[in-house]
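Subgroup meeting minutes
Present: P.N., E.W., G.H.
Scribe: E.W.

1. P.N. recapped why we're keeping a running log of single-chain structure predictions: easier to compare across weeks, and new members can see raw inputs and outputs side by side.
2. G.H. added today's entry (413 aa).
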Amino acid sequence: MENWKELALEASRRLNRVSGDDINSVLLDVADAAEAASFLLLKANEQDLAKMDKSNPMYDRLMLTEERIKGIAADMRKVATLPSPLDKVLEERTLPNGLHLVKRSVPFGVIGIIYEARPNVSFDVFSLCLKSGNVCVLKGGTDAYNSNFAIVELIKGVLEAHGLDPNIITLMPAGREATAELMDAVGYVDLIIPRGGAGLIKFVRENSKVPVIETGAGVVHAYYDADADLAKGTAIIANAKTRRVSVCNALDTLIINSKRLSDLPEICKPLAEKNVVIEADAKAYTFLMGKYPDNLLEKANENTFGKEFMDYRMGLKTVESLDEALEHIARFSSKHSECIITENESSAVKFQKEVDAACVYVNAPTSFTDGAQFGMGAEIGISTQKLHARGPMALPELTTYKWLINGNGQTRS
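Output recorded in log:
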């Protein structure tokens, strides 16, 4: 792949000439092809799954099923129906000297994605990048290489059938050398988006010469307030923690007001049914002794808080007030998603105002932090930074802009 950079750059120039209707046709055909070739995709995925221990929480993220492929295809069809984010007039005005200025949305050009063992990301990234006029260069995890290769070959086949450049999508080889090459591709790759755990994101941020938008790492809290509703809280906490433990919006630490410790047995009952290990601080541990399975109850340690578990584990912190909960979140949050469970409107307003995160919930689980759930179609990731994009990144977030200036012979004095 010695000339992949030049090929991706040239594909970007050609993609700029492709109409929105043609792009939508490609997306619909890729969705159909994915469903039609599900047997081949699942066979490739089985090769990857065979190399991973089923007890590894990442196993679920790596696994494709017929149902998941149908969901992926449905997301792609949804993206095809969404309005194009390109050529939107963001600002327009005429200066006193007669110059007419238009600020218009345009593609980035070439976007590199570095991600872990989630083959569905390959489809998501392609659909969003194509719809927003961007070429994508994928560097997936070694664990998912066979799955990603089959997916990219399927997509390339559809592109060629439409007479389009197959280099609109590129899959980098397995191995760290390819990651380094992608991060060094200044002048060819316009933006890199890492998707994965905190370690991957930190590595890319510290080593990439290409600009980076950070996504993915989620140290997520839910605060059960003194004025919380028990039924709502129990459902919210169980959904946030156990729906899918290996995703970035999963709950990591439950913070509970000390006035409501008596609610813990009821709150934790659904967690015990899912074999969630609770690492509890001293107060919560003492209260839960004998009320939660002994083999699932541990004392919190110095590494409990501020950790993204991505497993059937959860921290439990007791606080005396909303302010103490806010201080804990400020110290340990990764600025991804945070939640308060309360019937006190002033507490809800204070929480949403003061918590510094991309998504801040009142009486709803953080499991909703997702582009599709937000009505955006598929997402390319959850941005936890503040420059350019924040929260679920979908089509509008994959564009930048340029100024178009029309004159009639004006000169500057």
